[in-house]
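Q: What residues go here?
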């Protein structure tokens, strides 16, 4: 429940790097996106999130920078522009 606690307590969060964090799940990202609406920068490189996280992430009204890099297996995420993801 680590990311869930951050999401509930730190609602004013603006920048967050979860790069290489173990246990980051789609559910955690969805809760983060619901509670931390002021996020402008989010780094999810080398986490285990899936495409199921993207709808919630794209609803963040102030998000300006989303870093995906690679998943934990070292596979690159597809390179999408923000406008492509928002479709």
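A:
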């Amino acid at each position: 429940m680590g990311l869930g606690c951050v999401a509930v307590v730190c609602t004013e969060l603006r920048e967050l790097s979860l790069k290489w964090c173990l246990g980051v799940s789609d559910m955690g990202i969805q809760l983060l996106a619901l509670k931390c609406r002021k996020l402008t920068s989010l780094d999810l490189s080398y986490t285990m999130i899936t495409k199921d996280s993207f709808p919630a992430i794209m609803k963040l009204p102030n998000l300006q920078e989303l870093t995906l890099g690679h998943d934990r297996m070292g596979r690159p995420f597809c390179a999408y522009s923000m406008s492509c993801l928002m479709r």
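A: Context that may help when evaluating the design: The longest strand covers residues 15-17. The beta strands are 15-17, 41-43, 65-67.
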